[in-house]
TrEMBL record:
Residues 43-354 form the RSE1/DDB1/CPSF1 first beta-propeller domain. This is DNA damage-binding protein 1. The keyword Nucleus applies. SUPFAM superfamilies: NHL repeat, WD40 repeat-like. GO terms for cellular component: nucleus. It comes from Rhizoclosmatium globosum. PANTHER family: DNA REPAIR/RNA PROCESSING CPSF FAMILY.
Length: 1031
């Protein structure tokens, strides 16, 4: 899906202003169904006064207009792959991969009600869209592939005539050579209104103008301050500043005219970097100064580009290097969002005057997930919930051990006091604080419960908490905000003797300390400045131990410090000492019940549990640390000994090959008992536990890249080891990569190498692995799962096939396969007749034998698809398990999707035997880091669940926007959605207002024939609550 990042100007009359767009207005979106959709994001309730849709709701997308521009699916010559919009909203262009693009003329006087689109007419919104399908020009460029496109800003000083000309620059490619083509469209006269005459049916074409053969274009950007100019970044150190100079074209030959007027100027070298290859400019953001831009590269380099007068070379300055950045966006003032490329991103402040970068916060990105294990006994039941009114959002919160909570509603500038009871949260009072809160602190000062409210004024308000709510207790103002960074970010209280000191951490890295005093007569607090300390450049966060005798606190900024309140006679001072741990990104108090208290320290490569007695020393005692530098490829959790067997692949410095290693780790302490490194270049691909008999277990690892000698073709190997010695007992060499291993019928081992399936067994005399049987398949094998003597085999291009093994004859027998061609990534047997499969296109489906396993009269009948759904992400692993949530779900009709037959309790939960008694949940993890859970439904409850899904899929506030059809939205790929209820859709019920919820319940009980309104509301609310807690 391609998403349009420009916005359409909302205006009742045509405007000639060159002002950049605001965040308002509909946005255009392309989807693979071939539809072009226009959406509006409603940000606040004030924007709904002119809307006729009674279901309009803040912070929701609204479908404004929609129509089909191409057939569904992928097609290289059908428009729908890329979209560009003129910065003045005069035109837009939708491109195919090659040959064709559609040029649409936009008119702000047109509305969605005046179009012939059926999708538009079904929309209840009266919002305007500057578009009509009647004014579309189709352009064909045979043999050309469209690489990138950008609309150029007009020259406002050249007169009104130039504002009526729309200029589009397109980067095209043919036979590996790149060129630039300029298209111009001139609006007809007279104006306004815009279209009283027939609009022109062609574009004026200039070019193509060849680019140097050594350049590969990467990014284009139109320049607001340089009319008819744009920047073209390439894969080398060169950047092209291109200006289009229009002239009178020659006579049109067909529907296009040709001339050769353009100039390529200012070939600018970027500054050298520490990398050996050229950095690729991945994104560009304009600063508040329209002549200066911030550039980000694929290697994390941040640069500034300043454009001067035309003809003068721009000035490029190298600033710093951050994480790999895939997208850069200007947020406000000097704040920018750096989106990480498969790594954490950042919200940063970039100072153009000092060339410094200050991180405001970290944006986590945990993808991809490579493996998963499930641990039981994790989870809990929700004890109560408080939800703010529609349109309100919670910005920060604080509480105490007595069940008193204080939350701030940022948009309303209010502070709400809540009291937690038994299964209920009661709102006690609301207090307006005049400014939006930035942080809250809750403590007991001078025997009184006090809430400290930091605001964007900037200031700190003191509010006393009593049984009826809040009362004003004083205010501390900071004066000028110094560019917006003297805003309170964290607040706590430290004590020494009878003195109490208020610590305030600001976003500019400054810590303020004030002595607190209480005036009984005025019932207010006084503040006396004790000390001001510049701790670092990043916002400060305090990590207190939450005890009333706490004279020390941890301070996190650029690094970790200990702040201590020390008494020296009658004078108190603040002493700051550094904690000797580098590159700390986050600190949290794990428990204060131990002596000394335990903290969790995270760095970019480790997660450490540290005992730190900050009252006597700043030298930490590391209890245990989990290294994150080498992500695990496969993990096995052995419940008998509560240990982890981890297979990792790492790249040694100076080497281009991955090398595997196997570790035995205690998951609670992080102690690494054993470690074995494979030969250089041999990496781990699969791992399983082989249960031969009681008290006899082996760890089997499938590898690739093994070479007996340098220069010899690499092979795959199967290594088997005792689980807690990590000593190799033997090996079996195979010609190709070992992609899957699986224990089978206790004493056998199944191995998938290339397109061959091997049955291995340890010989009694030699204690060596021996191949007892082999079968060759048509395609490489990617996954294995067994149930009894049945083997489910996932092939690269052949979905899943069922084989049976006969121990007496030692032969594999093909039983049945899928009737559809799919590309499975993993499979999980649920019984001897049922298997769950995930494929690389994002589909999750269940295959079932249509006849009993004992019926061999028709051995080649295909599997029957029990259910199918497209999750939209490639699933890498499937796992059966159950996390205890403490929530009973029997009355919801949820059951196990596994059958009772052939269930066994294995010694370990691993890849070989993934079934266990009463395991009701299947977990699927994706390459993007998502975790999906799949549960079964009892037959008698299916009707209720499906009816609720049908109601929500057509309800105005919860139905999909793109395509406006739930089945097409949820699963457009491959084989559609069958016999599946979407829990994510049902959970959208929580986002509705009370009136909307009642409408949904009424429609649902009408569908299922339930007369009892109270019982209907209880069932729906229970279902939604159950979906929140199901693990």
């Amino acid at each position: 899906m391609a998403v349009l990042t420009s916005t359409f100007r909302e205006s009742s009359a045509w405007t000639r202003s060159l002002t950049l767009h605001t965040s308002k207005g509909p946005r255009g979106i392309l989807v693979s169904s071939g539809f072009l959709s226009f959406l509006r994001l409603n940000l606040d309730s004030d924007s709904f006064s002119s809307l006729q849709d009674t279901d309009a709701h803040p912070d929701r997308f609204e479908l404004v207009h929609q129509f089909q521009i191409a057939p569904p699916g992928l097609n290289y010559t059908s428009p729908g792959q890329k979209i560009a919009v003129d910065p003045l909203s005069r035109a837009m262009a939708v491109f195919a991969h090659q040959t064709t693009f559609a040029f649409f003329v936009l008119d702000p006087t047109l509305s969605s009600s005046s179009t012939s689109s059926s999708a538009s007419s079904s929309s209840s919104s009266s919002a305007k869209v500057p578009f009509s399908r009647e004014y579309c020009i189709t352009v064909r460029e045979e043999g050309w592939s469209f690489w990138d496109a950008v609309f150029l800003y007009p020259d406002s000083e050249a007169g009104a005539g130039r504002l009526d000309v729309v200029t589009l620059a397109v980067v095209v490619c043919k036979n590996g050579s790149f060129s630039i083509i300029i298209y111009e469209y001139k609006k007809p006269s007279p104006q306004p209104p815009l279209f009283k005459t027939t609009p022109p049916n062609h574009l004026t074409k200039y070019g193509p103008f060849p680019l140097p053969s050594s350049l590969l274009p990467t990014t284009t950007h139109a320049l607001p301050t340089h009319p008819l100019s744009f920047l073209l970044f390439t894969d080398t150190l060169d950047m092209l500043h291109i200006t289009h100079t229009p002239t009178t074209p020659s006579t049109p030959q067909t529907t296009l005219t040709h001339t050769s007027q353009t100039s390529l100027i200012d070939q600018i070298p970027l500054p050298p970097t520490s990398t050996s290859t050229y950095p690729l400019i991945t994104s560009l953001a304009q600063t508040p100064s329209q002549n200066t831009y911030i550039l980000a590269t694929d290697s994390g380099h941040i640069l500034t580009l300043t454009l001067t007068n035309p003809g003068n070379p721009p000035h490029v300055t190298y600033i710093t290097r951050r994480n790999h950045t895939s997208h850069l966006t200007h947020l406000a003032n000097d704040v920018y969002i750096l989106v990480g490329d498969m790594c954490p991103g950042e919200l940063v402040s970039i100072s153009l005057s000092t060339q410094t970068v200050t991180r405001v916060c970290r944006i986590e990105n945990a993808a991809p997930v490579l493996d998963v294990v499930v641990s039981r006994g994790v989870g809990g039941e929700e004890q109560g919930r408080w939800v703010p009114d529609d349109g309100e959002s919670i910005t920060c919160a604080a509480g105490d051990e007595d069940g008193v909570l204080v939350v701030s509603l940022g948009a309303r500038k209010e502070v709400v006091v809540l009291r937690v009871g038994v299964d209920v949260v009661v709102e006690v009072s609301r207090t307006s604080v005049g400014f939006e809160p930035s942080t809250l602190g809750f403590d007991v000062v001078k025997g009184r419960k006090v809430v400290f409210v930091g605001t964007y004024e900037p200031a700190v308000l003191v509010l006393e908490v009593d049984d009826v709510g809040l009362s004003f207790g004083g205010v501390l103002e900071f004066g000028a905000d110094n560019g917006g960074w003297r805003i309170p970010n964290s607040i706590c209280v430290i004590r020494s003797g009878g003195e109490e000191v208020l610590a305030i951490g600001l976003r500019d890295g400054t810590a303020l300390f004030y002595v607190l005093a209480y005036n009984v007569i005025t019932s207010s607090f006084g503040f006396q400045l004790l000390d001001t300390i510049k701790v670092g450049l990043e916002p400060i966060r305090f990590i207190p131990t939450r005890t009333l005798s706490d004279s020390h606190v941890l301070v996190l900024s650029d690094k970790v410090w200990r702040a201590s309140l020390v008494e020296n006679g009658s004078i108190s001072t603040i002493v700051l000492n550094s904690v000797c741990i580098d590159n700390v990104t986050n600190v949290a108090l794990l428990t204060s019940s131990t002596t000394p208290p335990t903290y969790i320290f995270s760095t970019p490569t480790t997660l450490s549990f540290i005992s730190l007695d900050i009252a006597s020393s700043v030298t930490p005692t590391i209890r245990h640390s989990h290294s994150l530098s080498k992500p695990p490829r496969r993990i096995i959790h052995d419940h008998a000994t509560n240990t982890l067997i981890v297979a990792c692949n790492k790249r040694e410095s100076g080497s281009t090959e991955m090398t595997g290693e196997i570790k035995l780790v205690d998951p609670e302490t992080g102690v690494q008992y054993l470690r074995e490194v494979l030969p250089n270049g041999e990496s781990c691909y699969s791992m399983t536990v082989w249960n031969i008999k009681d008290q006899k277990r082996y760890i089997c690892i499938g590898t690739a890249g093994y070479r007996e000698a340098p220069g010899v073709k690499s092979q795959g190997r199967v290594l088997y080891k005792p689980p807690y010695k990590i000593k190799k007992l033997g090996e079996y060499k195979l010609p190709e990569l070992v992609f899957a291993v699986c224990s089978f019928m206790k004493s056998y081992l199944l191995v998938a190498s290339g397109n061959c399936l091997y049955q291995l067994k340890i010989e009694a005399e030699s204690r060596a692995l021996h191949c007892g049987a082999k079968v060759e398949l048509r395609y490489p094998i990617r996954s294995l799962s067994v149930s009894g003597s049945n083997i489910f085999v996932g092939g690269a291009n052949d979905s899943v096939s069922l084989y049976s093994f006969e121990p007496r004859t030692k032969q594999f027998t093909f039983y049945r396969s899928d009737d559809l061609t799919r590309t499975p990534s993993d499979c999980l047997s649920l019984s001897t007749s049922k298997v769950l499969v995930a494929d690389k296109s994002g589909e999750l489906y269940c295959l079932t034998n249509p006849t009993p396993n004992t019926d061999r009269s028709q051995p080649h009948i295909h599997f029957k698809t029990s259910f199918c759904v497209n999750l939209g992400e490639t699933i890498t692993r499937l796992h059966a398990g159950q996390m205890d949530t403490g929530f009973e779900v029997d009355d919801l009709g949820i059951c196990s999707i596994q059958e009772d037959e052939d269930m066994e309790e294995p010694d370990t939960i691993d890849d070989g035997v993934k079934r266990a008694k009463e395991l009701k949940t299947i977990y699927a993890v994706s390459i993007l880091g998502s975790v999906f859970s799949v549960r079964g439904l009892k037959e008698e409850s299916v009707e209720r669940w499906k009816a609720l899904q049908d109601v929500l899929s057509s309800f105005p506030a919860t139905r999909p926007l793109l395509g406006n059809d739930y089945m097409r939205y949820r699963s457009t790929a491959s084989h559609g959605m069958q016999n599946v209820v979407d829990g994510d859709l049902i959970r959208m019920y929580e986002l509705l207002s009370e009136a909307e919820k009642q409408r949904v319940v009424d429609e649902w009980r009408f569908c299922v024939g339930l007369d009892d309104e109270v019982e209907a509301k209880r069932w729906v609310e229970t279902v939604v609550r159950g979906l929140r807690t199901i693990g």
